[in-house]
Write a structure and sequence with these properties.
Elements: H1 2-9, H2 20-34, E1 41-42, E2 45-46, H3 53-65, H4 69-94, H5 97-108, H6 111-116, H7 123-139, H8 148-165, H9 168-183, H10 189-192, H11 195-216, H12 220-234, H13 247-254, H14 258-268, H15 282-300, H16 313-329, H17 337-359, H18 365-370, H19 378-403, H20 411-420, H21 422-429, H22 431-441, H23 444-451, E3 460-463, H24 470-474, E4 479-481, H25 491-499, E5 508-509, H26 511-517, E6 525-530, H27 536-542, E7 553-559, E8 563-569
Parallel strand pairs: 3-4, 3-6
Antiparallel strand pairs: 1-2, 4-5, 6-8, 7-8
C-alpha cells in the first residue's frame, strides 16, 4: 500500500499525457478563464465532444489550487477514493467485513485502477456514478418494499453519469439491473421501481444543460445522440475498433494479478452455475451481470479503449475478495485448484518476461520500437523486462508458500498482501520509462522554453500537427494549419469542419482562433511541425501546402526528438 500511496499522491510529477489529458485539462482551464460553465471550450472553440461534469470538477480544482497537472488530476484521484469506499461498503452489505477489506485492497492495487486514478480522463468519474447507481439498486434487493430514497438516488447517480460521459451513463446500470432480474425471472420488479420520482430527478439533472446547449448550438443534439453515440457504437467512425476479444488482454493486464486467480476460479465453478439462481447466490449473480454487461457491451461496440472496462473492476474486486476470503477460512491440506492455477499462471508470466529480456537483442520488436520510442527510453525496456519477470516470479512463489500454511491465521492475509504488491511494483518499475516518454512527448518543456524566450508573445501554430497540452501550458490558444481539423482530436470540430462550405486544404483552422490571435501581416510567428513530414521549412516557405504563407522565410528555433519549432516571417500584406 506504500507503493500505491506514493504513486497516488504523485499526481503532478508526470506531465499531462497527450492527447486526452492535455485536451481535457485545457477545457477545464478555459472554462474557468472564460467563465463559460455551460458550453465547454477548447483552444478558443466550442468543445461538445463530452458533457461538462469532469470539466466542472477540474475548473473548481483550478480555482482552489491553481493551474497545474496536480490540480487537473485531483478530481480523478478523489473519484477513485470514493469508488474505493463504495466498493468496501457494497462488499460489506453483500458479504462481510472481511470480504470488504480484501475487496478494497484488491481494487486499490489493480493496475487499471492505479493508472486511471491519476489521469485527466472521464472513466474514473463515470465509474463512481455507475457504482453508486448499482449500489443504490442493490440496497432495495430483497426488501419487502422498495425505498424511494434508494431508487431516486440510483436515478440521480445515472443522471450524473450521463452528464459525465453521455448516454452510456444510464445504459450501463440499466442493462445490468435488467440482465440480473431477467436471469432471476423477476422482470416484474421493473414495475416496482419508483419511475415517477426517478425520472423526474434524472430529467432535472440532465435536461437543463442539454436544452440550453441545444438552443445555443442547434447541431448539438444530432451530434451527441447520433454521431457521438449511435454511430460511434455501431461503426468504425471513431477509428478505435478492435477484435471481439479486445477486452480479454485488458482484463488480464489491467486486473493483474487477480485476473488469473479469478479466471481459474470461474472456470472451475462453471458447472455449478445453477447455484447463482438460488437466493444465496444473488450477490454473485448481480456482480457477474455487472461484469458481463460491461464486457459484452463494449466488445460489441466499434469504439474500444482500455478505460471503458474500468467500471468492471468494482464487481471483479468483490468477487475476488469473496473467493479469497473463502480460501483463507477453509481448512485444507492443499491449495484450492484455482489458487494453484493462479500462482502457476503468474510464474509462467514471469518466465515470459525473462524470456523476452533474453531474446530482446535478437528480436525484431527492438528495431520497430526504435522508430517509436525516444532514444532515452529504449535502453530502459530490456532491464525492466528482467526486473518485472523476477518480481512476478518472486511474489507468486512467496504468496504460494504462505497460502500453503493455511493452519496459521496470518498466512492468508499475508499472502494477499504479498500478491497485492504485484501491480504497484510493476507500475513503479516501469514508471521511469513512462516518465521519460511522457516528458519527451509532452508540451510542458516546450511551453516553459517559449515562455522564457524573446518569442514568448509570438503567435504559435501547428503545421498539420497539434499537441493538445500546449495551450494548457502556454495559457493561451494555439493555431492550426490543417486540411480537416483532425489534429485537434475533437470529433465535434471535425464534423463542423466537414460542413463548412468555405473549407479548403491549407486554411488555418478554425477562423475563430486566427481572429483571436490576430493573424499578423508582417509580424513573425512560430510554427511547430513534425519532422517526419520532411523538410517542413521548405514546404512552408514555398507555400506548396500552405498557400496562406507564400514567400515566407523559416528558420529553425527549437528542435526536439521528432518535431521542430520554426520562426516564420511572412511578407507584408
Amino acid at each position: 500500500m506504500t507503493a500505491y500511496a506514493s504513486f497516488f499522491l504523485g499526481l503532478g510529477r508526470l506531465p499531462l499525457l497527450e492527447p486526452d489529458e492535455g485536451r481535457n485539462a485545457e477545457v477545464g482551464r478555459e472554462m474557468l478563464a472564460l467563465g463559460r460553465w455551460l458550453t465547454p471550450h477548447y483552444d478558443g472553440l466550442v468543445y461538445l465532444d463530452k458533457p461538462p461534469m469532469l470539466f466542472w470538477w477540474m475548473a473548481g480544482s483550478f480555482k482552489l489550487f491553481g493551474l497545474s497537472a496536480w490540480a487537473a488530476r485531483l478530481p480523478s484521484a478523489l473519484a477513485a477514493l470514493a469508488v474505493l469506499l463504495l466498493t468496501g461498503y457494497l462488499a460489506k452489505r453483500m458479504f462481510s467485513g472481511s470480504v470488504a477489506l480484501r475487496s478494497g485492497i484488491i481494487f486499490a492495487t489493480a493496475p487499471l485502477v492505479m493508472v486511471f486514478a491519476r489521469l485527466v480522463i472521464f472513466d474514473m468519474l463515470l465509474t463512481l456514478w455507475v457504482t453508486l447507481a448499482l449500489l443504490c439498486f442493490w440496497l432495495n434487493e430483497g426488501a419487502a418494499s422498495r425505498s424511494v430514497l434508494a431508487d431516486v438516488s440510483a436515478f440521480a447517480a445515472m443522471g450524473l453519469a450521463t452528464l459525465t460521459k453521455g448516454p452510456v451513463g444510464f445504459l450501463l446500470p440499466a442493462l445490468v439491473v435488467f440482465a440480473y432480474w431477467a436471469l432471476r425471472g423477476r422482470l416484474r420488479e421493473i414495475q416496482k421501481l419508483h419511475w415517477k420520482w426517478g425520472l423526474a430527478i434524472f430529467a432535472a439533472i440532465v435536461l437543463p444543460w442539454f436544452v440550453v446547449v441545444s438552443i445555443r448550438h442547434p447541431d448539438f443534439p444530432r451530434y451527441a445522440l447520433w454521431d457521438e453515440s449511435l454511430r460511434r457504437f455501431a461503426t468504425s467512425s471513431a477509428h478505435r475498433q478492435g477484435s471481439p476479444l479486445y477486452y480479454l488482454p485488458v482484463y488480464l493486464a489491467g486486473f493483474l494479478p487477480w485476473s488469473f486467480f479469478l479466471l481459474a476460479c470461474g472456470l472451475g465453478r462453471i458447472r455449478r452455475w445453477r447455484e447463482l439462481l438460488h437466493e444465496d447466490g444473488a450477490p454473485n449473480l448481480f456482480l457477474i451481470c455487472w461484469v458481463g454487461v460491461i464486457f459484452v457491451f463494449f466488445s460489441i461496440s466499434q469504439s474500444k479503449l482500455p478505460g471503458y472496462f474500468l467500471p468492471a473492476t468494482v464487481p471483479l474486486s468483490l468477487l475476488m475478495g469473496k473467493v479469497w476470503t473463502e480460501a483463507e477460512s477453509a481448512a485444507h491440506e492443499h491449495l484450492p485448484g484455482w489458487m494453484t492455477g493462479g500462482f502457476v499462471a503468474l510464474i509462467l508470466l514471469g518466465l515470459m518476461g525473462l524470456a523476452a529480456w533474453r531474446l530482446w537483442g535478437y528480436a525484431a520488436p527492438g528495431s520497430r520500437l526504435a522508430h517509436k520510442l525516444p532514444p532515452d527510453v529504449l535502453p530502459l525496456v530490456k532491464p525492466e523486462l528482467l526486473y518485472s519477470g523476477l518480481i512476478v516470479i518472486a511474489l507468486a512463489m512467496l504468496g504460494r508458500n504462505l497460502m500453503r500454511r493455511a493452519s496459521r491465521r496470518w498466512a492468508g492475509p499475508s499472502a494477499l498482501a504479498i500478491v497485492a504488491l504485484t501491480g504497484p511494483l510493476l507500475i513503479l518499475r516501469w514508471y521511469r520509462p513512462l516518465e521519460l516518454y511522457a516528458a519527451v512527448n509532452s508540451s510542458r518543456a516546450l511551453a516553459a522554453t517559449i515562455q522564457k524566450s524573446a518569442e514568448k508573445d509570438w503567435p504559435i501554430y501547428g503545421y498539420y500537427y497539434f499537441r493538445t497540452g500546449l495551450p494548457f501550458y502556454l495559457r493561451r490558444p494555439v493555431g492550426l494549419i490543417t486540411a480537416d481539423a483532425d489534429e485537434l482530436t475533437s470529433n465535434y470540430q471535425v464534423s463542423r469542419w466537414r460542413r463548412m462550405s468555405t473549407k479548403s486544404a491549407g486554411r488555418s483552422l478554425p477562423r475563430g482562433i486566427s481572429q483571436a490571435l490576430g493573424w499578423p501581416s508582417n509580424h513573425p510567428l512560430l510554427v511547430r511541425a513534425k519532422d517526419w513530414r520532411g523538410q517542413a521549412a521548405l514546404v512552408i516557405t514555398r507555400g506548396v501546402q500552405a498557400p496562406m504563407l507564400p514567400g515566407a522565410e523559416a528558420v529553425p528555433r527549437w528542435t526536439g526528438w521528432d518535431t521542430t519549432v520554426w520562426k516564420v516571417r511572412t511578407p507584408a500584406r
